[in-house]
Amino acid sequence: MSPRMGPAGEGPQVPDNDPKDAMGTGGPPGGEASPGPEGRQPSIFHSIKFFVLCHSLLQLAQLMISGYLKSSISTVEKRFGLSSQTSGLLAAFNEVGNTALIVFVSYFGSRVHRPRMIGCGAVLVALAGLLMSLPHFVSEPYHYDLTGPEDLSQDFKASLCLPTTSAPAPAPSNNSCSSHTETQYLAVVGIMFTAQTLLGVGSVPIQPFGISFIDDFAHNSNSPLYLGILFAVTMMGPGMAYGLGSLMLRLYVDIDRMPEGGISLTSKDPRWVGAWWLGFLISAGVVALAATPYFFFPREMPKEKYELCFQRRKVLTVAASSVGKGEDSLKQGSGGSPEKQDGLAQIAPDLSVIQFIKVFPRVLLRTLRHPIFLLVVLSQVCLSSIAAGTATFLPKLLERQFSVTASFANLLIGCVTIPLAIAGIVAGGVLVKHLHLGPLRCSALCLLGLLACLLLSLPLFFIGCSTHHIAGITPPPSGQPGPGLFPGCAEPCSCSLDDFNPVCDLSTRVEYITPCHAGCTSRVVEEAPDKVFYTNCSCVEGGGPVLAGSCDSACSHLVLPFVLLVSLAAALASVTHTPSFMLILRGVKKEDKALAVGIQFMLLRVLAWMPSPVVHGSAIDTTCVHWARSCGRRAACSYYDHDLLRNRFLSLQLFFKTGSLACFILVLAILRQQDKEAGTKPTLRSSGQEQQQLMSGPEKKPEESKV
């Protein structure tokens, strides 16, 4: 759940060669050079501190708009009739544009006007957010009862069991209805996939160019502090995305075009759809405001000359130690040697685009030959797959498993899961920094963290309850009445196959898809408790009444223990973030460190963040027991097998956790073997010298001493 970065840009543009600069004795405090005549105030856009502030806010807003779709994924499914596989592909599609362009950031580096490139990318992200909300405005109003709003009396009778002679007019034929629905469906899906692609393209220059710009023009001692502040603020973005989703989904989807007389739904109704689109508009506006200052920053600014004297500077840098230390290593790898190295990061400025593309595969293969690097990256791929699947579909799992609203599910994730995951990242950085852990102990820490995470995840399989009885879909429990007791009770009702308006028989906890399927012929509204009952139900024992809405879950009280265990497991897995990053930096050659980080994040995108939501969505679709229909087309899933849903989702997570654990076991074994070999070499060398001294008599021949 932590922010993902691409490869940093090239080395410093303005070398700090001035002896006065090195001593910190020149220029005004803060490194702001006076661009004009004496006495003129320097521009705020020549201050690296102001750039750090702007970039922190921009990355916060960018991660908020990127994560907002995950907070409302189940609502988008319900609104437009998407399967979980399609919605998972949609959530992962922003990685397509990002992955296609991120490699070329290493090539362009400091050749471009980085602040303006960041501003242009942010504007593209804002436009992508506006485009994501466009389907709401081009689609027809949401009809939760599948009837037109023009006849309110028909609204009341839409789901009732009516004689064939007095039934409402039939819906349009399947051919015309399907043609219209399919055209609208394809247009909406095409718009959202295009928006996600633009979102990925726009986010490419934001983080790498911002990091390299700060590192180039900040004082060498201040750069880790600024990066610590940057990533500490950035990590709040996903939590704010879920918080925004929690607020927006409490509002009705058509709040801007409410029908006359309002609606009779509440947020607990399974047909409720929240204002998913409003969060994209708000996030896009925030990104656009944060992008404005970047068009006023210069291409280069004076190197900061003064070190900030904060006693607690290390506290801030610990939060981003995994990235901060990586930046120090990147800087050393790109500018530490005056010679031209074979690493791509060193030779990229001297190559053309064609030469860059030709040399990239060779250096990539050389980097992948390092066993430590390859195993750690594979482990991170498994952990990132867990994070991608959890971030996308955990809200939906909570909604279905424990019958909570989408708003409450997002609130739990934003306030519990993400903060604990961030705390795990910080804890990993603290342990690595203050215990001075070497590669062997870093791998041991990762192994312990994943083992504890794995053990903590096992009780989750037993926290939940089975799907309640749904008439005609799930078999009734023994001893309970079912539709089999009343054969043909709903045959004369002419019930629509596309309708979905669930009702619950409170006495037997049997749920019916619509009042029509329960054989109900009348409707009663109690205004005081704001409840709707259906009566005279021929398929219900005693004739009813039945309550509008799905039957409540019998285990809603278990949602908090479930979320707490998931959050603690995520925190333990996040502890491995910093030590695994250090294993990568110390497992490759010095000249390849910059490229290794870029390859690492490229592989994470290609192997984890792109396929994982699709894999999790496909697994969820296999647990559906009843698909909603829209004009003859399969839409979103109405009912899942709760036990199967929980077990398959958690089993997939367990598979990735086991794979990550196995990778770190191999890493630990390789490092221990390397330590043994390194310890035996001095022993062999010293014993060889002693043997030469004993056998160095004048009568000995050189041939004998060789043996």
Report on this model:
This protein is mainly alpha-helical and 707 residues long. The chain has 2 domains: 37-144 and 210-333 and 340-464 and 557-665, Growth Hormone, Chain: A (Up-down Bundle); 469-552, no CATH class. 57% of the residues lie in helices and 5% in strands. The chain has helices at residues 19-23, 48-71, 73-80, 84-92, 94-108, 114-138, 152-157, 174-202, 206-217, 223-234, 237-248, 276-291, 313-318, 321-335, 344-347, 353-368, 371-402, 406-434, 439-457, 559-574, 577-586, 593-609, 611-621, 642-694, 702-706, and strands at 469-470, 503-505, 510-512, 522-526, 531-535, 546-548, 624-630, 633-640. The strands form 2 sheets. Strands 1-3-2-6-5-4 form a 6-stranded mixed sheet, with no helix packed on it. Strands 7-8 form a two-stranded antiparallel sheet.
For this entry, give a set of tags.
globular, 707 residues, mainly alpha, disordered C terminus, 8 strands, 6-stranded mixed β-sheet, 57% helix, Growth Hormone, Chain: A, two-stranded antiparallel ribbon, disordered N terminus, 2 domains
What quaternary form is this?
single chain
- Report the average pLDDT across residues: 77
Total count of strands: 8
Q: Remind me, CATH topology of the largest domain?
A: Growth Hormone, Chain: A
What strand line-up does the widest sheet have? 1-3-2-6-5-4
